[in-house]
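Lab notebook, design round three. We kept the backbone fixed and only want residue identities now. Task for the bench partner: fill in a sequence for the structure below.
Input structure tokens:
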């Protein structure tokens, strides 16, 4: 299959280009679309063949359910069952936007979408291209991140094509996404609501609306038992093993330079303040921006992991971004990428 690249404006997409992509969706094809978080691989939620085609294109296991994307509330009919009161509060505050809510599913919804579970994940994205495609397709769109299974989520169309060229019908290319990490997923079927995946809407913002909210932290193990199966520790890992160092910036820098003398195929997922040190020590690196600018670090994270993956490195070392907001979602991704390997460097 030839995967077409359809270039569109991120803010004012050409209706002709959108109609072309929507026609592919309406005949059961799969199209990668930008959202404000990451690119998603979209198909018609009402067409079981399209749903299957998404699992096949990604090599995604059937036990990992898909998010249903809508452009207006009327599209929830036939998707969701009885909505909890928290749904109205949160959708009012955060939709359209990077918040996915887990709610009871409608009995008629294709069971493959929820992997046989009783709740469905729904989201109204904030990206003009995603909204235009959903409207022109005139159906809810299921869309997992548009990467091959177990690769980092794509934040531009090149990432999508590197993973999925020949496996999908088209990608709507609107440049890089603005948030860079996936949506926050909150389970509204329990009390208090529980955050299953940290993401574009920070936990502290959800708490201002909900009062009480818990955060489910990283687990390893059997995916059927996980509350959100795609959130297994291994999920964000680049090919080379990752180790996180905690400590002050100078302590971490000194330690990494020493390590690189023993291992010349080590690479550094670093911050702007580390670049001079990495260059001086001839350590291959990719920078995430300023360590205290969580929003910028989030936009760089998955691209930087892909850059390091493309080098023949045997080990990746890094440290976590500082501060609140979306930085918490980045720390969560980095922790998962490192499969929990954290070394605390004490001051001597
Ligand atoms: O930002 C995002 O959420 C992006 C864009 C494209 O919208 N989508 C995305 O989808 O990240 P995906 O499939 O890569 O991640 C969705 C996560 C998976 O970990 C999946 O297991 C979980 O949501 N999930 C989806 N439906 C679920 C359900 N019914 N119950 C529990 N977990 C669910
Ligand atoms: Mg994903």
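Proposed sequence:
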């Amino acid at each position: 299959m030839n995967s077409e690249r359809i270039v569109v404006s991120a803010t004012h997409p050409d209706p002709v280009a959108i109609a072309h992509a929507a026609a592919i969706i309406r005949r059961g094809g799969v199209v990668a679309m930008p959202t404000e978080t990451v690119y998603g691989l979209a198909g018609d939620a009402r067409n079981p063949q399209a749903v299957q085609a998404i699992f096949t294109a990604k090599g995604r296991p059937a036990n990992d359910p898909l998010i249903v994307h809508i452009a207006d509330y009327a599209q929830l009919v036939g998707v969701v069952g009885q909505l909890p009161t928290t749904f109205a509060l949160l959708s009012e505050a955060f939709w359209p936007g990077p918040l996915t809510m887990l709610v009871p599913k409608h009995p008629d919804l294709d069971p493959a979408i929820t992997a046989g579970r009783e709740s469905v994940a729904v989201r109204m994205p904030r990206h003009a291209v995603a909204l235009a495609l959903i409207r022109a397709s005139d159906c809810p769109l299921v869309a997992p991140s548009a990467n091959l299974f177990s690769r980092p989520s794509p934040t531009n169309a090149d990432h999508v094509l590197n993973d999925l060229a020949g496996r999908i019908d088209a990608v709507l290319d609107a440049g890089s996404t603005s948030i860079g990490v996936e949506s926050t997923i909150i389970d509204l079927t329990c009390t208090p609501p529980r955050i299953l995946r940290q993401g574009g809407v920070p936990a502290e913002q959800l708490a201002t609306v909900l009062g009480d909210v818990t955060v489910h932290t990283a687990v390893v193990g059997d995916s059927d038992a996980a509350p959100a199966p795609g959130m297994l520790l291994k999920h964000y890992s680049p090919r080379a093993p990752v180790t996180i160092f905690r400590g002050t910036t100078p302590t971490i820098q000194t330690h990494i330079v020493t390590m690189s003398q023993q291992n010349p195929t080590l690479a550094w997922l670093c911050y702007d303040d580390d670049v001079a040190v990495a260059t001086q020590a001839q350590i291959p690196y990719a920078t995430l921006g300023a360590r205290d600018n969580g929003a910028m670090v989030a936009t760089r994270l998955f691209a930087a992991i892909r850059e390091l993956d493309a080098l023949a490195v045997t080990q990746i070392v890094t440290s976590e971004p500082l501060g609140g907001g979306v930085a918490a979602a980045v720390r969560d991704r980095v922790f998962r990428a490192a499969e929990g390997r954290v070394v605390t460097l004490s001051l001597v």
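Keep this in mind before ordering anything: The radius of gyration is 20 Å.
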